[in-house]
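Subject — a protein and its fold
Encoding — discrete vocabulary of local shapes:
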Amino acid sequence: MQTRPKSPDCIRGSAVYEVVGVGLACPSYLIKKKIWDCLFTWAIYRAAHIELVSDISTETFVDLYINLWQAEIDEQ
């Protein structure tokens, strides 16, 4: 049985936020308010981060992503 060749993202060096996956879970209810779990995964470093969001608009997602990215820069 032959194995598939590795993806170039797995072989070459990459920046932290270069290969990111995002997933949204089904809505949950917290004190009569709908919330979603937003899961960010970074494939290069095998890291994950979960955020709770009150809406799933593009603006909310972009703000959340920028805040995560800014927090990483501030740590360095």
